[in-house]
UniProtKB/TrEMBL annotation:
It comes from the Bacteria. Transmembrane segments: none annotated. CDD domains: PaaI_thioesterase (cd03443). This is PaaI family thioesterase. InterPro entries: HotDog_dom_sf (IPR029069), TesB_ACOT8-like_N (IPR049449). Residues 54-136 form the Acyl-CoA thioesterase-like N-terminal HotDog domain.
Length: 147
C-alpha cells in the first residue's frame, strides 16, 4: 500500500483506524486513539522495541512521532479536495529523556498549513504529557496534481 492509498483510507475512516494498514505501524504495534477532538497514537510496550537494555529504541520513538504527524496532517486536509502527495522534507527529532519500558503516546499539532507546505510538531510522552521523552519538527511538501 502506498502512502497516498493509506492517506485516502485514513481520511475516509476519519478517525485514524487505518493506521494498522501501514506495515511500519504494525511492526511498532501502534494503535490510534481518537476521542472527540483529540487524536493520538499509542505504542504499547513490547520487548522488541528495546534498544539499550531498559530503554526504548530511538528509531521506534522517531517512527511513532512521524506517524503521529502524518496522521494529524491527513486528517486536517480539506475533504473536498484530492489528497496531495505528502513528501517529508525535514524531520528533526529531539530526544529529551530516555523512554522506559512502558506504553508511549504521541500527538502532533500543525504549526502552519499552506497549499504547498505544512509544518508540524509532534510530541511523545509516557506517563505525563508535561514530561515529553521526545519531540519532532517536520517540514512537509504537499505536491498537488496540476490542474
Amino acid at each position: 500500500m502506498t502512502t497516498l492509498e493509506w492517506a485516502n483510507e485514513l481520511r475516509r475512516s476519519g478517525r485514524g483506524e487505518r493506521i494498522e494498514s501501514l506495515p511500519y505501524a504494525v511492526m511498532l504495534g501502534v494503535i490510534a486513539d481518537h476521542d472527540g477532538s483529540d487524536f493520538k497514537l499509542i505504542m504499547p510496550y513490547r520487548e522488541s522495541l528495546i534498544g539499550s537494555p531498559g530503554r526504548l529504541h530511538g528509531g521506534a520513538i522517531a517512527g511513532l512521532l512521524e506517524l503521529a504527524a502524518l496522521s494529524t496532517l491527513v486528517l486536517a486536509l480539506p475533504e473536498d479536495e484530492p489528497l496531495p502527495e505528502i513528501k517529508p522534507v525535514t524531520v528533526t527529532v529531539d530526544f529529551m529523556r530516555e523512554g522506559g519500558m512502558r506504553d508511549t503516546f504521541a500527538a502532533a499539532t500543525i504549526t502552519r498549513l499552506g497549499r504547498r507546505i505544512a509544518n508540524l510538531r509532534a510530541v511523545a510522552w509516557q506517563y505525563d504529557y508535561s514530561r515529553p521523552i521526545a519531540a519532532a519538527n517536520l517540514n512537509i511538501v504537499l505536491a498537488r496534481a496540476a490542474t
